[in-house]
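Anyone? Bumping this.
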Amino acid sequence: MSQDILNILKNAFPSAIVEQETETGDYLEIKPGEWFEIATFLHDTPELHFDSLQCITGVDWGPEAHLEVRYNLHSMKHKHKLEIRIVLDRETPEVPSVEKIWRVADWFEREVYDMYGIVFTGHRDLRRILLPDDWIGWPLRKDYETPETYHGIVVPKIKEEWE
Amino acid sequence: MVLNIGPQHPSTHGVLRLKVKTDGEIVSEITPIIGYLHRCFEKHCENLSYEQVIPYTDRCDYIASMNNNFGYVVAVEEMMGIEVPERVEFIRVIMAELNRIASHLLALGTYGLDIGAFTPFLYMFRDRERILDLLEMTCGARLLYNYMWVGGLSHDLPVGFVEAAYDFLDYFEPKVKEYNDLLTYNKIFIERTADIGVMPAEVAINYGVTGPNLRGSGVAWDLRKAEPYSVYDRFEFNIPVGQGIVGTVGDCWDRYWVRVQEMLESVKIVRQALQQMPSEGDVHAALPKKVRPPKGSIYKRTESPRGDLGYYIISTGKPVPYRVKMRSPAFTALSVLDEIARGWMISDVLAILGSLDIVLGEIDR
Amino acid sequence: MFENLPYPDLILWLLLAGLLLFGLMAVNALAAVYAERKISAFMQDRLGPMGQGAGFHAGKWGLLQTVADALKLILKEDIIPRAADRRLFIIAPYIIFIGAFIAISALPFSEYIQVIDINLGIFYLLAVCSLGVVGLITAGWASDNKWSLYGALRSAAQIVSYEIPAALSIIVVVMLTGTLDLQGIIRAQEGLIWGILPNWIIFNNPFTFLAFFIYFISGVAETNRTPFDIPEAESELVAGFHTEYSGMRWAFFFLSEYANMFIVCGIATVAFLGGWQSPVPGFLDSGGWGLFWFFAKLLSLIFVMIWFRWTFPRLRVDQLMGVAWKVLLPLALLNIFGVGLWSLYIG
């Protein structure tokens, strides 16, 4: 992420940006509130032109900590990248949906919802995608407990040690 | 009328269900229902060490396992900052490109089958067998290789591989003309695929469609050129893009044609790699004692036969990854189906689905 | 042939003829399936059914493969879906089969061998050939399966459409020979034309040459074979109208499909290729050789059909109708005028 992108964003949304830092990649942490507007801005501004949403990753930082959504954006025109991170409250994880901006987010958000129970407000069709509709729980959360049975089928226990 | 195409159907390429609303033959709405092959790849990864994840990546896109291995090890190596010996890089590229040819052969053959042409399918399988033989010669497995390791390879190339690979390339190149005569320029095939399921470039980008499907829409985007990983920057090859030779840019025929051309480009890359490859070198030289990437995260994309294959890996400094997310190209390719196939006939929907070249193992993970 | 026989003899004769015809249909299907397997195998760079080693296997060159297939079909469980319309479901394969059977009985295998020789022969054949479609629709409807229904409706549309160009190109033959009697049509094709070519209708003039191809293409469509196999298009409709059938009932569909190929090629042979006439007059054209020539011509046409199947992709349903109504039908109509004018002014 070049400094220019950061400056443009800072000028447009002074209050939404939480922190920016370089670790192994460049990222930008923002508050969930204005995410839809920021996303629209990222997509529509000619200098930014992030027309491609590469990936949405949900992360769970443990039962005591928070949930997180990470968006990897890419611009086919300017060939620059940006990672957006949004930290969410564990009890009521809600974040605005961006599937109206990048249609690919439709299925990505459904997948994150399916696995983490993060609700994307404004999504037109937020259902489970990979798991059956009647599945209980959010499997990729760290505190998820494997059910003992599913529709009468016994779920085999995970073996701790190799036999 | 609501029609269920699948989960058991001859041309869903796996276990996929399409809930299709039809008005006679015309399709008005398509809802893909996926997840029949879901086996929690990402949950598994959180309980396995970094090395143990590699065989699981094999099983995601089982048509092009080498490329899946490749993407994963490249991501982990970049996190750990490992310099891989040159010979390893070349062998990886050779394997990945051979696997790409095999994958495209399967895609094209089954596409012919979707259109109703049976013979090209067997021609392509005959040639795919020879690639599988080469891969089997290298690592003993024909489909799920676990060949690329973090920092190296499981084995060095066997004796006689280079000659066998050259033999194959010499054999294979003229065969492409055979496919073209038999299927690509067949009048009925063109009637069935040209101007069908046109995907404009903006739609493709907006839906995150990548790989041959995006190039079929006329966008010259290939990660091997755009963000060269491994040693791809040392080879000369072209990026074939859809030109609408028999129809509109971005139709089914273009996507098909791009794959045919890509096989020839892969042949070029393999030839160059075989020539430039250092003949000596220990493929185990850079294997780390412990695979423990430093704290942090990475999103690394590589070009698999189906498009941008991304791995999002979060490490907390432990030998077990905290989170591995796989961004599968077929997943996004399937999501565009409703957009481009709406309003066409049932036969066309299956033709469009086939032209997107999806692998359900990768979509469902 | 039978009109003058006393009553009990007549019944015996009819039974015998029926059995022979049934045998012919069965043998035809067995041989055609074997041919299809082997020809497709050679076209696809593989061996096809091969018997190997000792023990229970498919015989030399896999010759017993189709016998094994038939055995399997007979022994298979007969499944009738619970939701199906039982009576119609059971009766449908027989309707199709009867359509094929009564058509095959009118084919002139040689100058002397023909089960029913009616003076409206070719008209009769065209009429009963389309009987099969009733069976198809019945099967599709009775199965209570959406794929079957799609297959049946497509098939009905297709067969009805392709009947028209087929019939119109046969009219050309009737115009030239002046008879509807099959033996009469064949006899009219005796001798040579222009000194070198046999006087078959296909060589009579350019228009009849075209008519033959129109008929043959329509014939391929009528038998639901690739590239016109949309009623059972495997990759789209699973198996079309016979999705729900298994065992013997399915075998009847299968038998009828190959019988239909036989009939269509038979009509083409009679109407355009001189039936049992030898290609060189006076050469091997005595008694039994008629049978040989008839089958030689017919089987080479069947070979062409098999060749089509393993070469072409499948057309889409609207393209298929387009070919019938926009290409073949106008051409066939033009042909009638063409042949009429040709025979008035040139021939």
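Late reply, but here is one note on the structure posted above: The mean pLDDT of chain C is 82.
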